[in-house]
Amino acid sequence: MLRAALGDARINLLGFSYGTFLGQVVANVFPDRTGAIVLDSVVDPAWATGARGSVDWIRENADVGSDATLQRFFQLCAEAGARGCAFAADGDPQRRFADLAARLRTTPLAISLPGQPVRELGYDELVIITGKILYFGWAWETLGRFLHAVDIADAEAGAAALAEVIPPPDATGYDNIVEANAAIACADTDNPRDMHRYGVIGRERDATVAPFFGSWWASQARVCGPWQGRSSERYAGPWTARTSAPVLLLNNRYDPATPYGNAVHVHDLLPNSALLTVDGVGHGALPLSSCASDATAQYLLTGAVPPPGTACGQDLAPFDQPPA
Hints:
Strand order of the largest sheet: 1-2-5-6-7
Number of domains: 2
Helix content: 40-55%
Distance between the termini: 46 Å
Structural class: alpha/beta
């Protein structure tokens, strides 16, 4: 309908994150009508359906992506040292994080953001805040300062670091993005009705493949347990159509929501696709890589895809000092 309204002979689409799932639906439902399709930060289509009792974000491997990205944070933080990453000041960041997480389970830290009441920062908040900031490589230096402040129980410094990356509440109106995400995701996906199943799966993933993040990602799907709405035209595969024009896939190597392995898998599924790897971190490959942006522009303008094995870097690494 959008294609017809625009008068386009072909479907051209640029999708980020969830938009890559929509892009795969378009590519597989209308393979003979595709034009330029760019999918950045690729969702594994297994997110939609799977074995009975399985959880969507676990099928999508998001917990694995968060764990791998956190390990990358530890590595780069240690390499940057205390001058570049405050969390490296008192030893191995990975060990310090594990110790801090264990301590916050029993002894939360009272913390308050500007204009907000004092609240406890415990284990759950540590995982959620860390997981969210991992999305943005440019904020990893701030994450290092936040973790260091919490580790030494400096609530004021921890709050100051958080205030740099968490926007204040919107006083102009109510943002319904949480409800919209639930309505869309729950209509798209199969998830357990048994509410206890989410905790069981999360703890299993915490213990086996993704410490800290298995339970976080499993819990994000719990809203879908009692959800009654279903999509009347949901597409659930197959995902292997040969499109009339090549599909360009992009992904950072360390993405905390859509891991690099997803893009490799979708590249294998789509016979007429190209994969552009970005040696970087965070959720979203295009915004921080002029190399990837140039290659994507070339594809959009000419239809030419990068040669197999092409890799780009990010313009700035997480702990690099930005230009003046």
